[in-house]
């Protein structure tokens, strides 16, 4: 059995098993080899295309959806729609989703290299002009009244149709069909933000993998006080992901807060220290990985014990508990149909009532680390966010519950410490469920 399969973490087929903040590499688990990832990814894709897409197209009132892109300029939504292994939109690739009278959706392709299942090839060949004529012929045969194309002013994930491809599309269509083209941003955002049960299981696994690596990094396995640097720990995390075959969607980073360093109310982030890690430091890390197409975003806190300590100071324990309280205040405001801006305002009010100095900047997550959906605050804007903040909260969506609190620590002479937390969670329409639990205790480095 390979090292990846022996990696002692969460099972890749597990569902909502909860991994505690003290998780270690002692639990039996499995990370699938790349070849073994193809079948489950394609099963999830087929499930989405068969069950989810018809509902979303009906809700968006679109009869046809066109996803047209070229190699090296792929539409952001493209890889969520094609079977694995797919690495590019070969030459020019055209996906056509046509809603039938019975509510089902035809999945068609017009491209040089047919995909096979789940797509039916309407045309294949090597002549680009013939390809565009074939697309025009298909559209006229199906005669859709509304045709969605990926153009959007505000959602980059829904703006994948390039100017050149749009001009070519308009040029081959009769005027009658040109007038039926409309932005498909509502469909695209809903497609990208909605999670199926199978994806939720994968998300749980991916988060537990990320949290397990953090637990390793914030331990004596990776840190020797007064010798190891924050950069060393960041690269330890990156290397562990590499060894496991897990894609990092950004470079992990590690910083510290230290007694005697300023942390004031006007500082957005207090954990900015870099360099050699010392005893008594408060550590912070931010990591993000993707596994079986599901991405995670995780921030956790660690404490480097002094030689005469067996646990973190009470003031730090209380601060982490306040961070968990802020998380509860935020997730309690998740109510279907509310906008991201409304959730933010309600959370800020509840936090103020509880006497918590907090900042909320929570975002959707899934096929992308920063995915489309309702924006719930931004670190540099604790007020309403236009457009994305006005998007409604829907059931079956996932979020990085992200933000921070500031609280004084008596053991540090009442110096303020910032607790920055981020845990991936799922909203089922009634409540928020953490994908692999959340940090409630300090990672301790001896």
UniProtKB/TrEMBL annotation:
Span of domain Peptidase M24: 205-412
The keyword Hydrolase is annotated on this UniProt entry: yes
Keyword NAD attributed: no
InterPro entries: Creatinase/aminopeptidase-like, Pept_M24, Peptidase_M24B
Superkingdom to which the source organism belongs: Bacteria
Keywords associated with the record: Aminopeptidase, Hydrolase, Protease, Signal
Gene Ontology MF terms in the entry: aminopeptidase activity
Signal peptide: 1-25
This protein's name: Xaa-Pro aminopeptidase
Source organism of this protein record: Idiomarina seosinensis
Source lineage: Bacteria, Pseudomonadati, Pseudomonadota, Gammaproteobacteria, Alteromonadales
């Amino acid at each position: 059995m390979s090292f990846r399969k022996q990696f002692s973490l969460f099972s890749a087929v597990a569902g909502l098993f909860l991994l505690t903040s003290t998780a270690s590499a002692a639990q039996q688990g499995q990370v699938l080899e790349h070849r073994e990832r193809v079948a489950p990814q394609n099963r999830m894709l087929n499930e989405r295309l068969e069950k989810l897409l018809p509902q979303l197209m009906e809700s968006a009132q679109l009869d046809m959806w066109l996803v047209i892109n070229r190699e090296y300029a792929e539409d952001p939504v493209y890889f969520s729609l094609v079977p694995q292994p797919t690495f590019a939109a070969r030459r020019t690739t055209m996906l056509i989703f046509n809603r039938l009278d019975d509510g089902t959706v035809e999945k068609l392709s017009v491209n040089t290299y047919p995909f096979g299942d789940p797509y039916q090839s309407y045309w294949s060949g090597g002549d680009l002009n013939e390809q565009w004529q074939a697309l025009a012929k298909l559209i006229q045969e199906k005669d859709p009244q509304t045709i969605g194309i990926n153009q959007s002013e505000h959602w980059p994930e829904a703006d994948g149709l390039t100017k050149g491809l749009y001009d070519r599309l308009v040029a081959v269509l009769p005027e009658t069909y040109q007038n039926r083209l409309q932005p498909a941003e509502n469909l695209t955002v809903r497609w990208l933000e909605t999670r199926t049960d199978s994806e939720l299981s994968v998300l749980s696994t991916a988060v537990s993998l990320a949290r397990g690596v953090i637990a390793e990094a914030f331990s004596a396995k990776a840190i020797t006080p007064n010798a190891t640097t924050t950069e060393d720990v960041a690269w330890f995390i990156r290397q562990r992901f590499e060894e496991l075959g897990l894609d990092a969607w950004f470079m992990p980073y590690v910083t510290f807060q230290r007694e005697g360093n300023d942390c004031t109310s006007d500082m957005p982030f207090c954990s900015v220290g870099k360099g050699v890690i010392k005893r008594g430091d408060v550590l912070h890390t931010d990591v993000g990985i993707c596994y079986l197409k599901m991405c995670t975003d995780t921030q956790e806190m660690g404490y480097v014990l002094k030689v005469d300590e067996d646990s973190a100071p009470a003031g730090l324990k209380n601060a982490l508990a306040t961070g968990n309280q802020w998380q509860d205040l935020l997730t309690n405001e998740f109510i279907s149909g509310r906008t991201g801006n409304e959730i933010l305002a309600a959370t800020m009010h509840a936090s103020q009532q509880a006497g918590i100095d907090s900042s909320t900047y929570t975002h959707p997550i899934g096929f992308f680390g920063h995915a489309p959906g309702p924006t719930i605050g931004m670190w540099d804007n604790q007020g309403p966010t236009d457009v994305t903040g006005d998007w409604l909260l829907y059931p079956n969506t996932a979020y990085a519950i992200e933000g921070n609190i500031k609280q004084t620590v008596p053991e540090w002479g009442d110096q303020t410490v910032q607790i920055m937390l981020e845990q991936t969670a799922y909203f089922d329409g009634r409540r928020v469920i953490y994908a692999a639990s959340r940090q409630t205790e300090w990672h301790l480095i001896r």
